[in-house]
């Protein structure tokens, strides 16, 4: 089975994240980054599928040179090969352009060996754009079964369990298909020493937009349908108001809640 996992290199959620004042895009140069936590579940699920049968897992990322670390971590976990699409023109791309680049890259990956399954995380931990998997499936002409808490691949189909607030759904799609997974589906493995050493010998291909046949005018900030117009740093946290209860504490609390429209 030929599986492609889409992964993203994101700013560390524990770091002080901000925007680049030159173009109001996410500042990725002055903050430490890592493989998106939600994508680790996608990599782990793909590895489990292959380990239960046979096949190969290719991890695909789109981003600047530093995004290679997302591929590196995935290869250390056990993925077989990586593809890194790196082109300056991609900077500032929105979900629509990102899905275009991913789709063309997946088509190129499957040129000689058709892709059976595309696996993604439920969203990214920086932009939280959970719409990308569905956009990607539409561009590839694949059925999209999203938000999987459980995944079973059997023969020519993929069946997921989707847990909602009021119900649980079982959804089956014929392969090839795209599946996005939640953080309930598994427990991602830590790279072992053996995996870290083996990753150094695994192939990683680097592609540009030209390699994919994508025109630069279709991506980037100028082609984006949405953009950040302004941003303001979060003000420092101020000390809370202290109210001395002189028998009217309840009234003061109710007034405070009402004034701030909490009740």
Report the top-level CATH class.
Alpha Beta
Label the CATH architecture: 3-Layer(aba) Sandwich
The structural class is: alpha/beta
Q: From the alpha-carbon coordinates, what is the Rg to the nearest angstrom?
A: 22 Å
Mean pLDDT score: 93
Q: Please identify which CATH superfamily we are dealing with.
A: HUPs
Terminal CA distance reads: 55 Å
Shape, principal axes of CA atoms:
globular
The number of distinct helices, counting runs of at least 4 residues, comes to: 7
Q: In terms of quaternary structure, what is this?
A: single chain
Spatial order of strands in the largest sheet: 7-11-6-1-4-5-12
Helix content: 25-40%
Tally of structural domains: 1
Reported for the largest beta sheet, the result is: 7 strands, parallel
Percent of sequence in beta strands: 15-25%
Q: What string gives the helices and strands in order?
A: EEEHEHEHEHEEEEEHEHH
List the helices and strands and how they pair.
Elements: E1 2-6, E2 9-11, E3 33-35, H1 37-52, E4 56-62, H2 68-77, E5 81-85, H3 95-109, E6 117-121, H4 132-140, E7 144-148, E8 150-154, E9 157-163, E10 168-174, E11 177-181, H5 193-199, E12 204-207, H6 209-212, H7 249-259
How would you characterize this protein structure?
This protein is of the alpha/beta class. It has one domain (2-223): Rossmann fold. The chain is built from seven helices and twelve strands. The chain has helices at residues 37-52, 68-77, 95-109, 132-140, 193-199, 209-212, 249-259, and strands spanning 2-6, 9-11, 33-35, 56-62, 81-85, 117-121, 144-148, 150-154, 157-163, 168-174, 177-181, 204-207. The strands form three sheets. Strands 7-11-6-1-4-5-12 form a seven-stranded parallel beta sheet, sandwiched between helices. The chain has a three-stranded antiparallel beta sheet with strand order 8-9-10, with no helix packed on it. Strand 4, helix 2 (68-77) and strand 5 (81-85) form a beta-alpha-beta unit. Helix 2 (68-77) crosses helix 5 and helix 3 crosses helix 4 (132-140). The longest helix is centred in the first third of the chain and has 16 residues, at 37-52. The chain is globular, with a radius of gyration of 22 Å.
